[in-house]
Design a protein that fits this description.
Layout: H1 2-26, E1 34-38, H2 44-52, E2 57-60, H3 63-72, E3 79-82, H4 91-97, E4 100-104, H5 107-116, E5 124-130, H6 143-153, E6 159-166, H7 174-193, E7 200-202, H8 209-214, E8 219-222, H9 224-227
Parallel strand pairs: 1-2, 1-8, 2-3, 3-4, 4-5, 5-6, 6-7
Helix pairs in contact: 4-5
Length: 232
């Protein structure tokens, strides 16, 4: 366990260092960028260790796996983000067990999450997923659809619209990364000009967090560089 703790501590240090350097390059404060630890396919023990190191936000995309971990970790004050495709038959469980949903791309899902949020719980935080490069194999709404979804979400009692999430086309070309992230940022700004008061721009992963932060990301989703290879 001590060996694993040391490995996680070093990986967290390196990721935090990358975030800090990217923020300095962008003229921003490191405190402006939150870290979401993508813990899918990794055991609860690693979540415990990262939490001891100060990480509180964890992202999962498999509902049953996530709920099992939540049951094991009820003694920890964690913030759970659902980041996978949201199916209609899973919305109730998501509404009952997560603080955030970052992958909403349909009105039907917004409506169900709002109506199924248990009484007494705070509105669920939502990021709309935008398919910024219009890749047919990826989930996410088009930029035009995002504008309509944001207006719809604004009228739902149990939805707190926080911002946008994007997974641009994979590339190692920094210029292309910047172009995609810049388009997301412009859409984010347009929504705010329309009065939505968004504060979260969830973009950037292990391979491209520097480009994302330079283009205004406020939350990076890090899995591989934090946890290592996935444990299926």
């Amino acid at each position: 366990m001590r060996c694993n703790m040391n490995k996680l501590s070093e990986k967290l240090r390196l990721v935090s260092q990358r975030i800090e350097k990217a923020c300095i390059a962008a003229g921003r404060q490191p405190s402006e960028v939150a870290l979401l630890a993508v813990s899918k396919w990794h055991p609860a023990e690693k979540i415990i260790e990262l939490n001891r190191l100060g990480v509180i936000s964890f992202g999962e995309n498999q509902l049953q796996e996530a709920m099992q971990k939540q049951q094991e970790l009820t003694n920890l004050d964690l913030q759970w983000h659902f980041i996978g495709t949201v199916q209609s038959n899973k919305t109730r469980a998501i509404a009952e067990n997560f603080q955030w949903v970052q992958s909403v791309d349909r009105q039907k899902i917004l409506q169900r999450l709002s109506s199924q949020r248990p009484p007494g719980m705070a509105p669920i935080n939502v990021c709309l997923q935008v398919n910024i490069d219009l890749e047919p194999q990826k989930s996410g709404a088009t930029p035009e659809e995002i504008l309509q979804l944001a207006a719809f979400a604004a009228d739902l009692d149990n939805i707190r619209l926080r911002g946008l999430m994007a997974i641009p086309r994979f590339t190692t070309d920094a210029k292309q990364q910047h172009q995609s992230f810049h388009k997301v940022k412009k859409l984010f700004e347009k929504l705010n000009k329309e009065g939505h008061e968004l504060d979260t721009l969830s973009m950037g992963m292990s391979s491209d967090l520097e480009s994302a932060i330079l283009e205004g990301s406020t939350m990076v989703r890090i899995g591989t560089d934090l946890f290592g290879k996935r444990e299926y």
